[in-house]
Amino acid sequence: MIAVPTVSLPAVHLAEKSATVGNPAINISIFLGFVLVTLVVVIRASKSTATAADYYAGGRSFSGTQNGLAIAGDYLSAASFLGIVGAIALQGYDGFLYSIGFFVAWLVALLLIAEPLRNTGKFTMADVLSFRLRQRPVRVAASISTMAVTFFYLLAQMAGAGALVSLLLGISSKTGQSLVIVIVGVIMIVYVLVGGMKGTTWVQIIKACLLVTGVAVMTVWILGMFGFNFSAILGAAVETNHNPKLLDPGLKYGMNETSKLDFISLGMALVLGAAGLPHVLMRFYTVPTAKEARKSVVWAISLIGLFYLFTLVLGFGAAALIGADRIKGAPGGVNSAAPLLAYELGGSVLMGLIAAVAFATILAVVAGLAITASASFAHDIYTSVIKKGNSDPRQELRVAKTTVVVIGLISIAGGIGAQGQNVAFLVALAFAVAASANLPTILYSLYWKRFTTRGAVWSMYGGLILSVVLIVFSPVMSGAETSMIPGADFAVYPLANPGIVSIPASFLLGFLGSVTERRREDPLKQSEMEVRSLTGVGAEKAVSH
Amino acid sequence: MASTSSVDPDGSPATFGIDFPAAQRSEEFQRLRSTHRSFVFPLAVAFLVWYLLYVVLAIYAPAFMSTRVLGNVNLGLVLGLLQFVTTFGITAAYVRFANRRLDPQATALREELEASEIHRSETHEEVRP
After folding, report:
1. By the number of CB atoms within 10 A of the CB, which of A205, A514, B31, B77 ranks highest?
2. Is B128 part of the contact surface with chain A (CB cutoff 8 Å)?
3. Which pTM was predicted?
């Protein structure tokens, strides 16, 4: 047992052993098939990526249904698929507890954010935040926070790609894994450069369909094996593992008071963070109207909800059919639960399919992240700050595309560098930053008349800096066996999740900054923003080709 | 301020010429605003409190949550599944509400504002691409 329990998100850990179950040749060929099909789709989509609205927002021509699928594709990462199935298989109830936060969070987007955001913004989160505040300081802050969130998320995905490969394709050497990270990075750059938002969206739609279908088939299969009796699966899971505690809360987070508080902190970041993730927010601009934005969230909620219900069955199914000992002993450990279960059910072919879907998942997620970060840099920093709003759209597009290449290279380097490190905390950190740096400012600027530039800047920088500083001084970095620097101990903050401090603090900073600022914001802008956000008058229209 | 900027919402031709403060003060808009807020705010608070309550119960009252309800299914699992039920339920309720109550009001207002905008630009004899 580790001395200081750290609550982190389930994620892909590096495999220690090289043996794989299943047939790597099948896994690789199914995966290559996916890459080939999506590349064709992306190239076809590239025929209409001439303008900024095409490149950043797919011409705003996606339907709510399509966008909902793409949101699900963006949101359901490899960590949530492999990680949550594994977490439920090993920690039972506490694994399930994770998934609920990821899911319930979507109500924030549905009720408070999606429609007004679509009505008032254009391409990025900063469009909405700077609508009635001073452009430059707010755009810079929003862009920095956007890039921080996407960078943490991207790094976690890229590092995970290397680990997944050892598990699924049987490549265990460090050079081999680095090569795969390079390939993932290059494919991602090609997707985004060639297809823009339209191509990226199609990759996510295809991936979401494959993932949800694959998981649904496995769920029905398992339920069928147990006579469609969920209670029987639970009983078998307890029996296989000789652990009646599997069904009760507390196996992972109930260890002590610190770990309990840590989960509350994580739960807050999850439920408030999803609606502040810049790559999710940007998806709302790809539909023509606010009503379609609403429809996309409804689709996303339906698919994501079903997905997490399926993983509940898969997790306990894996516990029942495979057992914790075999899962822990397999290469990839906790993450091997889903692939092992697929192998148990349908042999090499089903495992190959599931493995390829997991891998496709990484590609789709990193592509979505890269386009978001590049849009934010080109649109918010380059055009608004460096060029003071006077850049030619073609030039801006060129900057965006260059940024994608730079981001691709950085994430390849980061992914290779992070190999062997436990980077599971990065996804949790991304959610914590989104919940503290982004969400309070979004809510204030949409719903609080007296919100000011100073409030926005304090809240965004405060939330970002606080989250990162607390992580640096947490057991994630030092003071525990599982820390990044196990030898040192400067962990003055006892929890691995900053949310419980950073989220209330940034709400408070936003409030204090606004009430102390004497300079008033333009009341005309406030009127315009409020009227536009609710009525949709003057909202950006779809591009017709 | 560069009004030609592609990022400045000022530059959006669609909203040019609309008297937003007057629109904001209008009775119709105030009604839409309060219809919207009085529905989404309480609902958002309610689901956040319900989620927090569930998490706190799971973390601090494991014995209670371990109570068997049906076969091997315990109270924790039932409440967890209820989180799914309420989330789906709130989604359905909001969509119904938005379609019936928000959309008609918002559409009427938008059309009225867009009509006033066309009228204004005609009287100013402005040529817009």
Report:
1. B77
2. no
3. 0.90
